């Protein structure tokens, strides 16, 4: 960059540049600020809490029920008629190995449903 060009800037030009930079980092009127202010800690979303077969179950916000179950140390949460253990298999909703009952509604795929506060989840066997 040409240093002579920089020195040719007027104080007004420099002020306008700072105002433009500041406006670009500030939320528009009516928008929420997405970044915490300098020195503030970011607000963490509340961790959802539910129960699985009567035991507390928590996970990071946005995590699926299957992720919460795996995160809690469970590798399987139902059995087939033949007694084989089943849990998370495909993780994309194609198979039905991870089915659970959520708030009394059976046949729900745990890998497709985010954990929500207050859910009552039971294994398909229960």
From TrEMBL:
Gene3D superfamilies: 2Fe-2S iron-sulphur cluster binding domain, sarcosine oxidase, alpha subunit, N-terminal domain. Residues 1-57 are annotated as: Disordered. It holds the Pfam family Fer2_4. It comes from the Bacteria. It comes from Leucobacter luti. Residues 9-36 have a biased composition (Polar residues). Keywords: Oxidoreductase. One of its GO terms (molecular function) is iron-sulfur cluster binding. This is 2Fe-2S iron-sulfur cluster protein. The lineage of its organism: Bacteria, Bacillati, Actinomycetota, Actinomycetes, Micrococcales. The keyword Oxidoreductase applies. SUPFAM superfamilies: 2Fe-2S ferredoxin-like.
């Amino acid at each position: 960059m040409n240093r002579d060009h920089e020195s040719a800037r007027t104080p007004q030009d420099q002020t306008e540049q700072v105002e433009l930079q500041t406006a670009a980092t500030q939320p528009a009127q009516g928008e929420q600020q997405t970044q915490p202010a300098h020195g503030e800690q970011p607000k963490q979303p509340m961790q959802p809490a539910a129960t699985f077969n009567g035991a507390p179950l928590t996970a990071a916000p946005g995590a699926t029920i299957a992720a919460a179950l795996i995160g809690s140390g469970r590798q399987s949460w139902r059995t087939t008629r033949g007694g084989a253990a089943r849990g998370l298999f495909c993780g994309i909703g194609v198979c039905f190995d991870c089915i659970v009952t959520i708030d009394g509604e059976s046949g729900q795929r745990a890998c497709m449903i985010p954990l929500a506060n207050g859910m009552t989840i039971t294994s398909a066997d229960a």
